[in-house]
Amino acid sequence: MTIGEVSKKFNISKDTLRYYEKEGLINQVSKMNNRREYSEHDIENINFILCMRTAGMSIEILKKYIDLCMQGDGTAEERRNLLIEQREVICSKIKEMENAYNKLSYKIDFYYQTLLKKEKEIIKGE
Amino acid sequence: MTIGEVSKKFNISKDTLRYYEKEGLINQVSKMNNRREYSEHDIENINFILCMRTAGMSIEILKKYIDLCMQGDGTAEERRNLLIEQREVICSKIKEMENAYNKLSYKIDFYYQTLLKKEKEIIKGE
DNA sequence: GCTTGCGTTGGAGTGTACTCTAAGTGTTAA
DNA sequence: TTAACACTTAGAGTACACTCCAACGCAAGC
């Protein structure tokens, strides 16, 4: 897959893909005529990275994880611990967002009541 | 309440509080001897803003909402629509994060299996 | 009166994650 | 063969949300 195709597939810019490679999130993509050729493995990797990025995981943490992967089997436990830690971070973020969701719902409902009341008054006034 | 007290209460820096005020998220706090005195209303406001900020709402959107509040009752419907829209944004973010959570859980489990297998091999080898 | 502590200001600086630019290469289609 | 198009690079620029700095103000306690 070319960079253009990957860019379209995931709806991210080519610049971002090159940036991730430069930062070491994607291991050096093989090249044909000086152009990137993304393998199935690369695609899977990008998919994971994007999923974690949208969940708010930093590039630094992701890089650390990828680096551990590169270092081979010996780092399996460390990698596992890193993922458990990050899952916890995501978990508390979800809780914060649910809290915000509820606060918003409460306010939205309040506006609904207000608008309803106003409407009634208008009808009454006619 | 002084800026120092509010800063401690919410665990944010005084700079951030002044920054939010400058950006118009908190309406001009009254001053005694040129020092900010936060009212109960200010505190409630800050609480809401921080809740939305941790949920990822941008300062720009928050400012828009606060501006509408300032403009009075006439903007109630517009405010409500803004909140509904933002609730939707938060909702999809929660879904993305839950997706990431599940992906992580899957990987963590995979590492668990791997480590278990490795352990068995070590025992076998002894 | 002097130090300490808490505050003030405008404006500069920082970190993160892109995003854009300029100048160039290599393939394809008319 | 020339134009269009997709790609390459290094490096500069941008957006967002703070965060820090220097220089100063004011009140309390020693």
Oligomer: homodimer
CATH class assignment of chain A:
Mainly Alpha
In the sheet with the most strands of chain A, the strands line up as 1-2
Strand content of chain A: under 5%
Q: H/E element string of chain A?
A: HHEEHHH
Radius of gyration of chain A: 23 Å
CATH T-level topology of chain A: Multidrug-efflux Transporter Regulator, Chain: A, Domain 2
Instruction: Kindly state the percentage of residues in helix of chain A.
Output: over 70%
Tell me the span between the first and last alpha carbons of chain A: 67 Å
**How many strands of chain A?**
2
Number of helices of chain A: 5
**Biggest protein-protein contact in the assembly:** A-B, 36 and 36 residues
Choose one word for the global shape of chain A. Answer: elongated
> What class do helices, strands and sheet pairing of chain A give?
mainly alpha
CATH architecture of chain A: Orthogonal Bundle
Low-confidence spans of chain A: none
- For the record, the count of structural domains of chain A works out to 1
Sheet with the most strands, sense and barrel status of chain A? 2 strands, antiparallel
Question: What is the arithmetic mean of pLDDT of chain A?
Answer: 94
Structure notes:
The structure is a homodimer of 126-residue chains. Chain A has 126 residues and is mainly alpha-helical. Chain A has one domain (3-92): Multidrug-efflux Transporter Regulator, Chain: A, Domain 2 (Orthogonal Bundle). Chain A contains 5 helices and 2 strands. Chain A has helices spanning 3-10, 14-22, 40-54, 59-70, 76-125, and strands spanning 31-32, 35-36. The N and C termini of chain A lie far apart (67 Å). The structure holds a DNA duplex (30 and 30 nucleotides).
